[in-house]
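Worked example 2:
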Amino acid sequence: MNLPETGRPVDDLLAEIVRLKRHDLPVRGGQVTAYVYDTGRPAAHEAAARAYAEMLEVNALDPTAFPSVVEMERQVVGAVAGLLGGGHGVFTSGGTESIMLAVKAARDTARRDRPNLVVPVTAHPAFHKAAHYLGLTVRPVPVDLGTYKVRPDTVRDAIDGDTVLVVASAPSYPQGVLDPVEEVAAVAADAGVPCHVDACVGGWLLPWLREAGATVPPFDLSVPGVTSLSCDLHKYGYAPKGASVVLFADPAMRRRAYFASAAWPGYTVVNATVQSSRSAGPLGGAWATLHALGRRGYVDLARATLEASAALREGIARVPGLRVLGEPESALVALAGDDLDVFVLADEARARGWFLQPQLSYAGIPANLHITVTGVTLAGVEAMLKVIAESAQAARRRGPVVLPEGLVELVAGLDLDALTDAEFAELAASVGVDLRPGSGQPEMAVVNTVLDALPAAAREAVLVRFLSVLYG
């Protein structure tokens, strides 16, 4: 970007933003089944946006300078704690930061020389990220390939003297099922190890589903042995992005999540989060959303979500060649294909204006498409099912992606560090995936098929280069 010589008018800037967003997926309406959460209630979104703007320039770095931050956070964290079994919390920028703080607190509490985490293979990669940043080792354990839930006995077998944290998901993102939290927490407690429940997706949904009539097993801080829990408010709390809470059963453990430094001659540094300076906009947006919807609003949204999820599962079962993986207990549905390529199906749906999120095969779990059901989904569930059925037929006609012979072996054997971004882009373009500026949105079936055929380490290396080329 070349900075303009003089400032540009606001209307001009907003028009430019609209132009830049012309190829973005829509954030309202329910046709994007990942990344965004829509209530279908404009008034609630408007309240959040206005509160976000009001708090935009307030810096949460120093709560003594901006006491509004303290009061809002107390209310928001208090609401989450009140719903999820109590505890002492921190408002964070998202699930990854909440998980990062939970891992830090566990590491600093245990003080092991070679600390490790015991996590199901379905646990969110945020735990791997936290371990990477904080110097821990991840000890992944398999899940049952019928239920997609972790088994307590495999967790018990993976724990050793250096384990500082055991993880269970409520629900796990890939298939939307709840790990047996009570049993896993009991195993962890028997071993004297803290247990974190990743309820980033379900924390602000499962209690309302229960109130709407669903059967939801215990999963929160009221469960003996659960020592911390993460809950995202920018998911089923429907707050603007940048809103999550991590709760600790013990206030001493919450203090382990904090960071303070006095080894310099400047201002006092004490942070509750990974970030230092940060806008209080997300906090204001979350606070306003909770007030704008209220308990009744969340129960009504949960009831609509429950109905839409059931309709979606039943509708997918009627599409030849498709099946739902496991028995989802929340509002996340994963569908796999028996005789058709789900990656091609995703491209066909995208061409029809719908985004279904591809998920790669891993640890015996087949490649599939992920759908996040939100409050707005019910109004369009029949339209979604129609698109899925049409896209499945089109995918069957097209057939699966056929990769050039030897391509996977070539990619797996490449020294990607020896390639420039331009050379990597040329390699991608040679197999029909043009990432170069001005080339438009590539179909992703080829990309996903290549990634699906690679081992995890090679996938990660390719994804890093993919991102590097996109940003140039």
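The CA atoms of residues 75 and 287 lie 8 Å apart. Residues 407-471 form one domain.
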